[in-house]
Amino acid sequence: MEPTGADGAERPGAGKRMCIVGASGKLGRYMVQHALDRGYEVVGVCREQSVHKLAAFEGRITVVPGATDSDAVVARAVHGCDAVLTVLVPWGVHHYASGTAQAVLDHARPGARLVFSCGWHITRDGEDVYSRRFTAYAAVLGRLAKLARVVDVDDQVEACRRVFASATRWTVVRGSDLEEGDGQGLPVWSRHVGDPVLESSLTRRVDYARFMVEAVEDDALVREAPAIVGRLTPSALAYARTDADGPA
Ligand SMILES: NC(=O)c1ccc[n+]([C@@H]2O[C@H](COP(=O)([O-])OP(=O)(O)OC[C@H]3O[C@@H](n4cnc5c(N)ncnc54)[C@H](OP(=O)(O)O)[C@@H]3O)[C@@H](O)[C@H]2O)c1
Predict the structure, then answer these.
(1) Nearest to 184 by CA among 168, 161, 200
(2) Distance 87 CA to ligand 1 centre (A)
(3) Which of 18, 81, 176, 192 is the S-S candidate for 201 at Cβ 3.0 to 4.6 Å?
(4) Architecture of the structural domain at 17-239
């Protein structure tokens, strides 16, 4: 991995190792690309049947196949990593999300930067203000999915509760609705859903991934749960601060 980019500047990930848990998903693959672009050595964890989805990165990353909630798999993958990015997904009814979060919390090196993905429905301090539409949609969808034993949103809530309670250097990035498309730049963020800057509720997936990767290098995001929105959305353009980084 070249320590400098095309412009000769040192890349932020040079000499550092990043593990991406859930690397084969849509968000995961974007994160792998951003991490490589920033000079990180990348270790990706994904289910055995999904290894083929990482073929485009063959020879450039190390893949550890296996269930992302497996202690042994995660322990092996995060060994020696400076940062661990985790896609938290509430699949099934066997505590997949909380198992994944716990394995990362247990096995990541002390002091490592840990960044987790989830949706706006996760609240850290109960101060988020949700629209009636959002609340109704989340409740109905959550209940139906649990009944069908496909998804258990409560387990993603439990996963995040464990992360918030941990003494690690965590960031939980709460995504809005997502869309595909070219990158528009680093999303803007707020501590609370309900902030007008987030009103558009839409982020390009590639930009969500960028926020996850760049959060590793931003100490202002340690122990924060930023809710993000695309920086070119109408609400971001209308309400975002124009000065430095930080909550909009
Ligand atoms: N989709 C949205 O609109 C949205 C909105 C806000 C926030 N988010 C957050 O963004 C993150 C990524 O979500 P995404 O929708 O974009 O999905 P994604 O990136 O495609 O990721 C889905 C992940 O779930 C895994 N997965 C799929 N089926 C599974 C199963 N049956 N058992 C175990 N793992 C399974 C996939 O692994 P394989 O590659 O092995 O299938 C992949 O790692 C999540 O943290 C989500 O909460 C999503």
Answers:
(1) 200
(2) 7
(3) 176
(4) 3-Layer(aba) Sandwich (3.40)
| Any ligand 1 atom below 6 A from CB of 57 | no
| Helix H or strand E encompassing 139 | helix 132-147
Question: How far is Cα of residue 162 from the mean position of the Cα atoms in its chain?
Answer: 16
The predicted-structure confidence for 88-147, as pLDDT tens digits, reads as follows: 987 877 899 999 999 999 999 999 999 999 999 999 999 999 999 889 888 888 888 777
pLDDT digits 0-9 by tens, 158-192: 999 999 999 999 999 999 999 999 999 999 999 99
Tell me which DSSP letter residue 48 carries.
G
44 and 63 in contact (C-beta within 8 Å)?
yes
Q: Where do the domains of the chain lie?
A: 17-239
DSSP strand pairing (227-229 vs 188-190): antiparallel
Q: Is 22 in the pocket of ligand 1 (CB under 6 A)?
A: yes
The answer on pLDDT for 246 being more than 60 is no
CB atoms within 10 A of CB 71: 13
Which residue's CA is minimally distant from atom 30 of ligand 1? 91
**What is the H or E stretch that residue 64 is in?**
strand 62-65
Backbone phi and psi for residue 44, each to the nearest 5 degrees, phi listed first: -110, 135
Cβ–Cβ under 8 Å, residues 88 and 160: yes
